[in-house]
Amino acid sequence: MSQHPTTYVPQSAFGKWFESRLPIAGLVHSSFIAFPVPRNLTYFWTFGAILVFMLVSQIVTGVFLAMYYTPNADLAFQSVEHIMRDVNYGWLLRYLHANGASMFFIAVYLHIFRNFYYGSYKAPREVLYILGVIIFILMMSTAFMGYVLPWGQMSFWGATVITNLFSAIPLVGETIVSFLWGGYAVGNPTLNRFFSLHYLLPFMTLGVVILHIWALHVPGQNNPTGIPIKSGKDAVPFTPYATIKDIFAVVVFMIFFAWWVFYIPNYLGHADNYIPANPAVTPAHIVPEWYFLPFYAILRAIPDKLGGVIAMFSAIIIWVFMPWLDTSKVRSTAYRPLYKQFFWVFVAVCVLLGWLGSKPAEGYYTLAAQICTVYYFAHFLIVLPVLGFVERPLPLPNSILESVMGVQKGGAGIPAGANAEPQSKG
Amino acid sequence: MAETTTHVAEPTRRDFLYIATGAAAAVGGATLVWPFVQSLAPDAATVAAGAPVEVDLTPIAEGQIVKVFWRGRLIFIRHRTPDEVKSAGDVNVASLRDPQSDAERVKDGKAQWLVVYGNCTHLGCVPLGQQGEYKGWFCPCHGSVFDTSGRVRGGPAPTNLPIPSYTFVSDTKIIIGQEEATA
């Protein structure tokens, strides 16, 4: 926004009057209409819009669910069944909200791995990227607390296991945990405060999302080549090009979302969560929701309580340092033949960790999780720093236009000046 | 302008006022945060509900584990068989992760009664009784193993199942949440 002074000129007298008092129409115009977008963006760049849609969808369904839900340990489970059976379309609101969390995470993981692949985290987008990591942490906290609210067996024991993570902190751990619980065990005060925070955090997320989009509009979007926009020929205006593409992607994503909601709404849940919370019995096999599984596998891979907790939190915190751990000057993995292989190994390790997180922590599963955990951290601490020095990247195109149209000789069909930009690795 | 900025080697009264104001704001802010944080702690009703509870041991058959709650926390009362008591005693204490003899974990002359908190010391799941390598407890969540004295013998749990404070008021009755007066 700040680098693209608005060219917006209000037409009507009211528009002029209003714009001189609150220049919001100009802000929208420069950010979402005239804003220059690289002409070579793929559908991997539509997940930002999909994520905004999912955040709004979760907030809207959540606000309505909160009208019918009771955050009390004795009534919560019943009130969820009340929503499912008695409230008009309550089943739809709840299934949209519960499956919406999973859709949100599918979209965010694709968004994150797109960022890893195309080096979007590198300068000058470090702050933009770190804001994204903060959003992800807020999302995880919100999802965890939301899962506790139905107060079924998985809710209760998930809450017990996750809050007990903090008891690993030396000296003050037990005190912190009793402050989280508001009692001596997970109970009504815990449920009550989780509901309050579950309602609050999405709005904090929304605030950080606004900062994230603001930070995006300073350098502009990255693109599959990783090279910046050098001339007007490299870009198209946000509206209609990106607007229509984003809307189309959101609609396709809605179809995918609807398939889960209407055909297999409980597929991603656990049957045990339809049993009311019972503090005397732990379900035989407790696993977190699928989107936490890789981190859960890392937690269990370390045969030490404090060590496991540190490893699990480090697995996310290490993302923050990625812009500085990656020493390669080339952003896009498309031009990094060696890193491309390591990238896909890393993806495979993350998927494998997710699968291992769903398995019992015994025998070869634990060993495999330990190997994957070591590799996960080695990717950030060894592969990223070393490859930048040893890898010989492929030649970068001179411009985004050239990468799309091919190198033109003698200026045939390509306006003069489009090829004039000097080669740059940045 | 240049004159005033070049001659401020010595702190002025204004500097003192800035620091004093900042300090007052910091102390005031911290004081204001205190009640908010403190409200998260277990409240008066919860603490009051933590009064000692009396448990009658007569209906608990030998070999049986009974679950009771005190302060919202699960407690196992295990009526151990002579074999279980023996296997709990026949252990090289020094080899344990959290070294404690069985005698330290029960009351004198009441070795058949084991009273322990029922949440795994790893992440709080409820271990299953009479299972695992030592037939004590086995935690299904992350595989911690406890012996018939509730001591950790394997898996990720860092410590033994803790012993709540309790006292025998008669041979067949205990009060949980109350330590012996003589202690």
From TrEMBL, chain A:
<dbReference type="InterPro" id="IPR048259">
    <property type="entry name" value="Cytochrome_b_N_euk/bac"/>
</dbReference>
<dbReference type="InterPro" id="IPR016174">
    <property type="entry name" value="Di-haem_cyt_TM"/>
</dbReference>
<feature type="transmembrane region" description="Helical">
    <location>
        <begin position="43"/>
        <end position="70"/>
    </location>
</feature>
<keyword id="KW-1133">Transmembrane helix</keyword>
<keyword id="KW-0812">Transmembrane</keyword>
<dbReference type="Pfam" id="PF00032">
    <property type="entry name" value="Cytochrom_B_C"/>
</dbReference>
<dbReference type="InterPro" id="IPR036150">
    <property type="entry name" value="Cyt_b/b6_C_sf"/>
</dbReference>
<dbReference type="InterPro" id="IPR005797">
    <property type="entry name" value="Cyt_b/b6_N"/>
</dbReference>
<feature type="transmembrane region" description="Helical">
    <location>
        <begin position="337"/>
        <end position="358"/>
    </location>
</feature>
<comment type="similarity">
    <text>Belongs to the cytochrome b family.</text>
</comment>
<dbReference type="GO" id="GO:0022904">
    <property type="term" value="P:respiratory electron transport chain"/>
</dbReference>
<dbReference type="GO" id="GO:0008121">
    <property type="term" value="F:quinol-cytochrome-c reductase activity"/>
</dbReference>
<feature type="transmembrane region" description="Helical">
    <location>
        <begin position="161"/>
        <end position="184"/>
    </location>
</feature>
<keyword id="KW-0249">Electron transport</keyword>
<feature type="transmembrane region" description="Helical">
    <location>
        <begin position="91"/>
        <end position="112"/>
    </location>
</feature>
<dbReference type="InterPro" id="IPR027387">
    <property type="entry name" value="Cytb/b6-like_sf"/>
</dbReference>
<feature type="transmembrane region" description="Helical">
    <location>
        <begin position="127"/>
        <end position="149"/>
    </location>
</feature>
<feature type="domain" description="Cytochrome b/b6 N-terminal region profile">
    <location>
        <begin position="14"/>
        <end position="225"/>
    </location>
</feature>
<protein>
    <recommendedName>
        <fullName>Cytochrome b</fullName>
    </recommendedName>
</protein>
<feature type="transmembrane region" description="Helical">
    <location>
        <begin position="306"/>
        <end position="325"/>
    </location>
</feature>
<dbReference type="Pfam" id="PF00033">
    <property type="entry name" value="Cytochrome_B"/>
</dbReference>
<feature type="binding site" description="axial binding residue">
    <location>
        <position position="111"/>
    </location>
    <ligand>
        <name>heme b b566</name>
    </ligand>
</feature>
<keyword id="KW-0472">Membrane</keyword>
<comment type="subunit">
    <text>The main subunits of complex b-c1 are: cytochrome b, cytochrome c1 and the Rieske protein.</text>
</comment>
<feature type="binding site" description="axial binding residue">
    <location>
        <position position="97"/>
    </location>
    <ligand>
        <name>heme b b562</name>
    </ligand>
</feature>
<feature type="transmembrane region" description="Helical">
    <location>
        <begin position="238"/>
        <end position="262"/>
    </location>
</feature>
<comment type="function">
    <text>Component of the ubiquinol-cytochrome c reductase complex (complex III or cytochrome b-c1 complex), which is a respiratory chain that generates an electrochemical potential coupled to ATP synthesis.</text>
</comment>
<dbReference type="GO" id="GO:0016491">
    <property type="term" value="F:oxidoreductase activity"/>
</dbReference>
<keyword id="KW-0349">Heme</keyword>
<feature type="binding site">
    <location>
        <position position="217"/>
    </location>
    <ligand>
        <name>a ubiquinone</name>
    </ligand>
</feature>
<feature type="domain" description="Cytochrome b/b6 C-terminal region profile">
    <location>
        <begin position="228"/>
        <end position="398"/>
    </location>
</feature>
<keyword id="KW-0408">Iron</keyword>
<dbReference type="InterPro" id="IPR048260">
    <property type="entry name" value="Cytochrome_b_C_euk/bac"/>
</dbReference>
<feature type="transmembrane region" description="Helical">
    <location>
        <begin position="364"/>
        <end position="390"/>
    </location>
</feature>
<keyword id="KW-0479">Metal-binding</keyword>
<keyword id="KW-0679">Respiratory chain</keyword>
<feature type="transmembrane region" description="Helical">
    <location>
        <begin position="196"/>
        <end position="217"/>
    </location>
</feature>
<dbReference type="GO" id="GO:0046872">
    <property type="term" value="F:metal ion binding"/>
</dbReference>
<dbReference type="InterPro" id="IPR005798">
    <property type="entry name" value="Cyt_b/b6_C"/>
</dbReference>
<keyword id="KW-0813">Transport</keyword>
<feature type="binding site" description="axial binding residue">
    <location>
        <position position="212"/>
    </location>
    <ligand>
        <name>heme b b566</name>
    </ligand>
</feature>
<dbReference type="InterPro" id="IPR030689">
    <property type="entry name" value="Cytochrome_b"/>
</dbReference>
